[in-house]
Amino acid sequence: MITNKIDYKVYSNKPFAIWANSRIINERLSANSYNQDYLDFAKAKNTFNFKKVSDIARVTAMIGWKGLTTDDYVDEDGVYLLRTVDIKDNYIDLENAVMAKREKVYEQPQIILKQGDIIFSKDGTLGITAIVPRHQNKEMCVGSTLARIRLNSNLDNYYVCAAFMSKIVQAQIGYFTSGIAQPHITQEYINKLEIPIPSPEIQKYIGDKVRKAEELREEAKRLKKEAEEILNNELNVKELLIKIDRYTEKHSWIMNSDINDRMDALYYNPQKITIKKFYKNYNLQKLKDLVDYKKGYAFKSEDYCNNTSTFLLRVSDISNNEVDMCNMLNLPDEFYQEYKDFNLINGDIVMVVTGNTTGKSIVINNNKFKLLLNQNAIRMRIKEGIDISPYYIELILQSQYFQTLLKYSLYQSVQPFISMEFLNDVVIPIIDKTKIENISNLYEKSLNNLFYAKQLIQEAKQDVEDLIEGNFDMSKVKANS
Fold first, then answer.
1. Which of 61, 225, 440, 476 is the most buried (most CB within 10 A)?
2. CA-closest candidate to residue 148, choices 94, 187, 98
């Protein structure tokens, strides 16, 4: 089917084939540069107000960091050196961020971040965007794969951040991308990106959604931390840490009664044995008595398809206590019934059992899609008649109690993996029922906040796209003012 457009015609979408006149074609001759989204942008430029990034902001995009060595990294009392992996779901996650010496960072003030700066990935996975939150009081700087974008105008920076996430700007990023093994966009081309500029009222309306998402994420962190503190107090974690920290020797003796069919030294680590003894007087229930296990299915690459409502949950789709829908693979809708033993529903716990992230887990929460599980993870579903919250069990599985037991029980081969023997032997400390409910409610609220934050970000991006396409509902702005 031919779609008539100003200045171009689309002859086929798969494979993508177009006719375009000379008004669209310029310095880029790659076929990938003229995809549907970019052509829509080229048309929109005639009907909407756009400004180049160079007109509204100053961009700092380092090629590298001269003189930085491993000696310049520190464990504490430094400046967070942000990398692309530290930007997750369009916000900054410092959980695994590295630090550099403060005096080293100060040598290059152009990489130091302040509240309201926009961060933009320019190498590898391009166009990942986040904004330095208003509440952020930790010192941070951008690494060599990121650019710092600091507005020099009175535009709403939260709106501009949403615009960067929208397909209208992402299409331009794809247009300017160079490199195959390592995609890259230069500072020159970042400055050439064009941002749609609506009225201040619309900017604020869209920017407020990004601001609200930021608030929800911060509240989610607080709620989870509160739940973890209650759990840690009940499990006496401070006293436990004092006991296990005593064991730093390379060699140790164990009792004959502690030896079983495992003969590797790692398995008999004193910390693990100490934990088991520490909790022997608690009310312990075996995990296998609380949940049913189901390992995922090895779907084949030829099973993957497009534009269905059924998705395959892989290890890489588990991120930040949530299912990350951004890059999930589709499966035929009929698979949801055909492979119903591998379905995932709200309240299911998913744990990675093979690979470098073995032991990472999430509880499926607020999911509105049809999900099937792949073979590198296991599903835990609360048994019928068992009155215990999956949110409580999930926090136990994330706790230092479980993760330490797991660390010294993994089978170490080419890839580490969790055995069913280990899972069958795992016990869950059962504390006061009221406190279990409190912990579960706090954690569920935390996950709900993350879910709604993600929804708001998607809405903000969609609002920008609706503006360009002429589908934006101005009544929403008036109702909000």
1. 61
2. 187
